[in-house]
Amino acid sequence: MAGISPGTVDRILHNRGNVSESARIAVEDILQKVNYRPNIHITGLSLKRKYKVVITTPNLMEGEYWESIHLGIQHALEEFENIRVECIILTYNQYDIYSCRDVYEEIAGMESDAVIIGTTFKEETLRLSKHLDEKDIPYVFVDSTVENTLPLAFFTSDHYICGFLIAKLITSIIPDGSEIGMLQAVRTGDESANTSILRKRGFSDYLTQKNIDNNVRKMPFTAMDPVQYDEQLDRFFQDHHEIGGVVVLNSRGGILADYFYRKGIRDIRLVCVDLTTPNVWGLRNGFIDFLIGQEPEHQGFLAMKTLIEYLIYRNPVKLQNYVRLDILTRETIDYYKRFNFMN
Amino acid sequence: MAGISPGTVDRILHNRGNVSESARIAVEDILQKVNYRPNIHITGLSLKRKYKVVITTPNLMEGEYWESIHLGIQHALEEFENIRVECIILTYNQYDIYSCRDVYEEIAGMESDAVIIGTTFKEETLRLSKHLDEKDIPYVFVDSTVENTLPLAFFTSDHYICGFLIAKLITSIIPDGSEIGMLQAVRTGDESANTSILRKRGFSDYLTQKNIDNNVRKMPFTAMDPVQYDEQLDRFFQDHHEIGGVVVLNSRGGILADYFYRKGIRDIRLVCVDLTTPNVWGLRNGFIDFLIGQEPEHQGFLAMKTLIEYLIYRNPVKLQNYVRLDILTRETIDYYKRFNFMN
DNA sequence: CTGTTAGCGCATTCAC
DNA sequence: GTGAATGCGCTAACAG
Fold this sequence. Notes:
Strand content of chain A: 15-25%
Number of helices of chain A: 12
Low-confidence stretches of chain A: none
CATH superfamily of the largest domain in chain A: Response regulator
CATH class of the largest domain in chain A: Alpha Beta
Helix content of chain A: 40-55%
Order of helices and strands of chain A: HHHEHEHEHEEHEHEHEHEHEHEE
Largest interface: A-B, 35 and 35 residues
Mean pLDDT of chain A: 92
Number of domains of chain A: 3
Largest sheet of chain A: 6 strands, parallel
Structural class of chain A: alpha/beta
Radius of gyration of chain A: 24 Å
Oligomer: homodimer
């Protein structure tokens, strides 16, 4: 249309230089006029370049949170099958900071085009991000973000609002003034679980803001030790008879649902987070009243999609990307498609 | 890979005949082995054929339900920009059965490759479907389905469960035993609003099933006459002092939210359906407590996407397609991306 | 600085 | 019944 050959147009599109002003202006004019948008699938067709993307998260367990993130990433790779990207997946034990440190050091020493980081340990992430900044390797966070870092983007739910919402939901379905239990996984001494801190803050803020005087009773329990679950829970409920509802601000709510099931407890309301297999079971069977979903599949999908588009076109990227907080009940769970964003 | 030329492979892929048994078996073998899936975007690249799709729904109003369906359809057309589909959009007045009849007659006389029908009038839809069956034109329904028809597929939420859920939500946030108002748009005599009937059934079934004795008070109001809203509502609330909450089983809930706002009413809980502009306003400003979304954008998107894939590949299509029922509160509405399924 | 050419996966057309 | 040739939008490699 501008009387310029495709080779030159391509150079203009990709800012590869070696183009005369006159040609550039003529072509950019036309691009404007026809509102040109490259088709990434067809770009992929002819693109020879391969991209190497490192993905690091805590270890995957079937039906758990981090697996969903990875499933979302896989879906993005399928959607953009024409773009050749090689993934290196490196996971670590989220309860062992040394295992994380080892993996992050390996990544700091690697060459890659981009990194996807599922954040857990704050200080470690900070250090890795510095390394990547130096080497000019773009990185994105999923699940939560970390202060004082320079990611290309992050994909997370609003954890503060999540806690706030949980408070609102639980107080709306328990009798006024009854006590609320709060299950807490005691991690072996670390600064991590930024998400839980934010949620807890949102939770308390709701109660103070609304002047609600339901007493909150902490239910500490040792996350790594399933044998002692029952013992600890038995003791808790013996000591607290006024509990009208329980909230679990991490993804481990299914443990309580299972406990209620085995003990035949039906009169304590339960609000939990994340669509893990046990949580979904608890919701379907009436032990969990509200389950909050934070679209982990979508987070992973968006992270990879954003990276691919950035690597190919170097478009400006939105830094903050908050996903939905889905409120699920036993009525709606069967219609909840986890890959809605793909179909 | 099979030592067969691309022309022959194409004949096999599309069942065009003129292929020897031996070649077919050899190629199908390889297709299996490499798990061949055609890439629809690239198919579109080389496809010359144009498709003509007729879309018929009630008239569009900005920020209303049917507009969302159309937006979803548009998004599908953008995603599959390589496939040339010409859309003919024909809308009618959903409160005037004759206007619908006229449009449907026009469609029955047209030639097209497929039709998307936003159902409202049952009998009219039934008649149109018969015409399309005769002419072998595939059609899909959005919003709801109609019995005794043979659509290729339908895309809808579960309206019965929607009503059931509304009952659960409203009763969980109002005092035991307080009355529930139910706003009803009185349509000018027709058998339509199948969706409202299903929702009402779900609503009542929840109450009887749970042995809840909140009295339900019907609030009839004339849908076409906004001038009389206040009068009718004033009278209703004067006559009923025990109303603890109101439900609106159609998308017109925003009217009540606005009424509560103007009258300074803050102590009546409200549960509504559909993310129309007034409803979202009501939710954000605390007049609506729960808003149920039924993903109209996704319904439209899936309808068009399904049609395109069917027209091109003649794949088997899933008949029943239920979308999510999203429960939104003022906390989560800001994170609700209506085109989640695209990004 | 610029234009030509080839090829990605796929469907079509036409000559054998 | 079959294969070869062409072109869709785009990038890469190379010859000027």
